[in-house]
Amino acid sequence: MPKTPNSYQLHIQLCDTKPAIWRRLVVAESITLAQLHRAIQAVMGWQNRHLYEFEIAGQRYGQPDADQPDDPTMDARRYTLGQLLQGQALAVRYLYDFGDGWLHRIKLESVAPIASPAALHSLPMCMGGRNACPPEDCGGPAGFADLLAALQDATHPGHQAARAQAAHFDAKHFDLQRAQARVHSLALLRANAPVATPRAETALA
Predict the structure, then answer these.
(1) What's this model's pTM, rounded to 2 decimal places?
(2) Alpha helix ranges (H) inside the chain
(3) How far apart are CA 202 and CA 205, in angstroms?
């Protein structure tokens, strides 16, 4: 009898930012790390302009540099989340944009069996979140803090420049429907093994 596939519920939080910025994402265990990268980009609100890497159990996964044969980075397209986590709540770090250094901590919150192939289109699924993703290329957490300070204070010497950079930015805004629409449009698992809506969740400590 074939093994019943599982879904993983992930809590993804951007480090070193205030207010706290996080997303809750449900994925199939068969998702590759490269696909997970695209899903995170979609639900967070990043624009996928820069390099990325995951770190799990001390090993880095991303896009190896073909010009550097000694590059220890493993190809993120060749490893699935299920292969690496095996249902365990291991520490996962996701770094986006090596210049700005947007570090995310990913926690496996629960594992659930996938009931039926009928809902293949439902995963990945964004289940919630809080606060807006920082504008791209704003200088990392420190630059983001400076941008928010300048936006919020009309007397700040950088206020006009901040408004020109992010005139309509609302740090408290998060649109769940839009985030879900973005990740759904990726169609990451359409050609993979059937997956469906999670059931009978097993919470992880």
Answers:
(1) 0.88
(2) 33-44, 81-85, 140-152, 159-165, 176-185
(3) 10
